[in-house]
Here is the input.
Amino acid sequence: MMPNAVAVGGLCTKPAKPLSQDLEDFVQSSGPHGVIVFSLGTYVTNSIPLEFFRLVTEALTRLPQKVVMQYPGQPPDFLVKLRDQIRTMPWIPQNDLLGHEKTVALVYQGGNNGLHEAVYHGIPLVILPVMADQHDIAVRAKDRGVGESLEIQTLVASELETVIRTVITNTSYTENMKRISAIFHDRPERPVQRAAYWIEHVIKYGGDYMRTSGSYGHLNVFQAYLIDVLVFILVVACTIALSFRYFTKVSLRFLLALSKSRSNKAKEQ
Here is the structure.
């Protein structure tokens, strides 16, 4: 990152607000098992077929936890019948739910904002990545031991149930996330305060003094996009490929000549 760039990740993070009374009563009714938050985001949720939600419901009903699920529009009959265990809402107060003491896991599509909210509140993850950076976030979450990921295209109910149960019951996921959350919070200022400070700072003084000779504004096209490096790599790759082709061709000629020579000698005998 260049000196004139300031990291302000986590702008959407904030303390949880109280839930509505109806939602609070539902969450509290989960008892010692707690609540799972399920959300695939507005864009993905609106494009997911009904059968996928049937599969997810099958997995969630095998777990002792209650579920708050984002579902667009009127929920189907199979979800309505399970209202006591799975509460569907067109929009869910995700940050407020993640900050609730009863929440034990977030099952979601791997969006960046959801990741920051989960880190802020220390909630482990089960990620079903669909597109863009979601796959990268899923890999990073698994690598850091704060969650697991599953391929949404090949998902089966038993697999989803097992992974969610593992993330909830294996305390290492929560412990790792709590540690990362503590690191996230251990800063002199919140991300929004940091962003506001630097915006005001640049308005006052400009940002030119933070630029270095290596900044993009001081580089030509070849330097900025490393075209010279790419050309060098391409030349080396082509040289290796041509050398391999040449030595393969020479070797084949030698083997054919040797085979022909032995064949002629055998005929003469």
Summary: The longest helix spans residues 227-268. The mean pLDDT is 86. The chain is about 55% helix and 10% strand. The longest strand covers residues 103-108.
